[in-house]
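User: Let's play a game. I give you a shape written as tokens, and you guess the letters that built it. Ready? Here's round one.
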């Protein structure tokens, strides 16, 4: 794995250097231009791509770039969940997921408690799935929102479209229900 990481780290640098060298040879120059003459946005984009691939920060970059000013409350709650999972903030993510365990006093009314080892495991698995969806995506969008009355109460269904780089698109539905703790995730499809 470290050999692959090194390879992914070195390739963008080699591409930039090759492009500089090629442009100098085409102009008949024998020296490489001053690096300050290179379009800095291309270099910065390559550095971002390099960091994405090496450090696995793609998920975090995606959620940081999302404009949440036009999102409804259910979509905002999903955005909070995506942000928490991308950053590995399991304690915050736990507060967005509805507890549906054996404790009948809490089931359907409370969120997961990250301090509890069994509940923490469920939160981590949920976040790992979400982080994988984000990490393999070039972007994501909130596509649709639908409300429906169910046994659990008013259900809010948020559809999120994840755009995959070479595969196309992938749709996922996040189902939320109102509880005394606010809107909480009950299912992901």
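Assistant: Ready! My guess for every position:
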């Amino acid at each position: 794995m470290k050999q692959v990481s090194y390879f992914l780290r070195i390739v963008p640098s080699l591409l930039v250097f090759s492009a500089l060298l090629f442009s100098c040879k085409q102009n008949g120059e024998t020296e490489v231009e001053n690096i300050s003459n290179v379009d800095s946005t291309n270099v910065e984009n390559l550095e971002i791509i390099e960091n994405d691939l090496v450090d696995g920060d793609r998920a975090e970059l995606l959620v940081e770039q999302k404009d949440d000013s036009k999102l409804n409350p259910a979509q905002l709650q999903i955005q909070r969940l995506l942000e928490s999972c991308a950053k590995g903030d399991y304690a915050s993510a736990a507060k967005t997921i509805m507890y549906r365990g054996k404790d009948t006093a809490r089931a359907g009314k409370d969120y997961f408690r990250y301090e509890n080892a069994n509940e923490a495991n469920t939160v981590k698995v949920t976040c790992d799935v979400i982080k994988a969806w984000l990490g393999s995506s070039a972007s994501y969008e909130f596509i649709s929102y639908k409300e429906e009355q169910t046994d659990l109460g008013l259900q809010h269904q948020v559809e999120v479209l994840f755009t995959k780089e070479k595969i196309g698109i992938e749709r996922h539905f996040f189902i939320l229900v109102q509880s005394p703790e606010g809107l909480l995730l009950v299912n992901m499809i």
